[in-house]
Amino acid sequence: MSAYEGLSSRLRTALCVSGGSMDLDVLGRTLGLNSEQLTRLVEEEEGRSIRIREQEGKRVAVYQSELRVCSERTRKCAGDCGKLHLCRYFIMGSCTRSPCKFNHSVQTPHNFQVLRQHQLEALGTKVLQQLLLQNDPSLLPDVSMRCGS
Ligand SMILES: [Zn+2]
Ligand SMILES: [Zn+2]
């Protein structure tokens, strides 16, 4: 692993631990970077693993990943989609179907495998829900969609 890859993975970890996003100044301090190094990191990572959002006059780094939820109904998918098999309403924190025929666990062998591919297997369910919500446009209700514009 090169020094840069190490930094990139520390960046990812820092953002995940703080729930998926972080004030850019705080992020720089957490990673022990001076402002020049931080600027370089942002240039390198923006559009790849993070995007930058203006929030109340501050710049906030928001983690983004290729991690998605399988859009096929779990039953039809052969399991080679590379996406999580999870109930969408569960991710949004409001599944009221009982019993729900979709998966509410991130701990299945399939999901674990997918998380491993994205090096996100150590995340807790709450953080994961947060990441998925900010990553996957198909999960966003209309209200949140407008935030980015
Ligand atoms: Zn699938
Ligand atoms: Zn459900």
Automatic annotation (TrEMBL):
Residue spans, zinc finger C3H1-type: 86-107
UniProt keywords, alphabetically: Metal-binding, Phosphoprotein, Repeat, Zinc, Zinc-finger
Lineage top rank: taxon: Eukaryota
Keyword Transcription: no
Domain C3H1-type: start-end pairs: 86-107
GO cellular component, one term: nucleus
A Pfam family it matches: zf-CCCH_PARP12
Single GO MF annotation: NAD+-protein mono-ADP-ribosyltransferase activity
Listed name of the protein: Poly [ADP-ribose] polymerase 12-like
Species: Pelobates cultripes (Western spadefoot toad)
Lineage: Eukaryota, Metazoa, Chordata, Craniata, Vertebrata
